[in-house]
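Mods, move this if it's the wrong board.
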Amino acid sequence: MGEKGRTLKSDLLAKSGAFIVIAAIMIACSMFMTGNISEASTYSYNSSSEDDIQTEPVYHPVHNLKAVSDEYRTVKLTWTADDGYEGGFTVYKVVDGKLEKVGTTHNRSYNVRKLTPGKKYYFKVKSDTFSSKVSATVIVQKTASLTLIKSGKERWDVRKAARQKTWGYDTIQGACAYGGYAYMALYNRDVERIKVVKVNLKTMKVVKISKPVDSHCHGNTLTYNPKTNRIIAVCGKGGKKKAVFVNADTLKQTGTRTFSISDSFIGEEYKGIAGLAYNKNENRYIVKIRSYTNKIISYSSDFKTKKRIKITKNESELLPQGLYTEGGYMYDVQSFKNSRKYNMITIRTLGGTFVGKMKVRSGTSGQLYELENLFYDETADTWYVSFYRANVKTGGDTDRKNYLYKLNNLW
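Not the wrong board. Structure tokens:
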């Protein structure tokens, strides 16, 4: 074999991957045109020759590529590579059907941030010679950051702050806020009634307490309508479909209203109303139905049915609690139950489209606190959540506590 033939063979064998055949054709054409190999010449080599260079393509595969979304608007990609590989990796995502470079790294993981909640993304991770692909849906879920509200060195408890005026009313239920004041429902399970407690959120002082509100009212949710200056308490336990109106200034009950709910929509599984929330932007009410299949009904300001919505991605094994709405979103509150050792807030648009979830933990694994409500103080731009804790003492007595926290990272 001539020197030029040896050079050609070495060049070809130095190439790797699927490009080797294309490279060989390109080089052969180049040599033909420049006269290095005549038209009648035959190019060949003996693979068993002693001077043959045994060169194999070198691949650096990306193994076990995985994508997980467990942080707000973020997907974490992880993978493995061959031992000894010291090269880098390039990360891509598909945008409008085209690959878009996200970044490079020498690590075996990469966080792709600022993604759209609920959207499915496709990703590609490439080493210098090999790539792998994976997809992930950005399920927005994060853990709540909480700040405990205290009175001196102790936990602030609305029942203790109200003193003897709430004797027997020992369990926090629904809550809402307006003008720097919180309105909290304390429930008396012996008489099945609530009292509404008005609290100054700046001083944490109780300024007014209502008389017992209606009969058989659980008060699972409180909501405030600034157009009517009324607090509305939902009385939906045990199949009821009633709301009670309370004047926000005097805390006197001013009336009741029974909801019109179609039996064909709720079905035989109906267990009552789990939540009620007024949206001031839309001037309408949102009602959460307590049933095995989760449903939402939108009502006009005069309680005429506007829209029925079947919702998805609810934690069916959690206990339904309050409902809150602000801006274009509704916030569905659920507390722990059975093996589910956490509370949850699920965020949706007013049309029912899933946006994200937030796990809300408080207490210890042996003594979890039950999340009861979520509300927003617009004057201080602050979100709050309330928890209830029951501790059965020796002898059978139950010590009931109610705690209030600031929720720091709700989006």
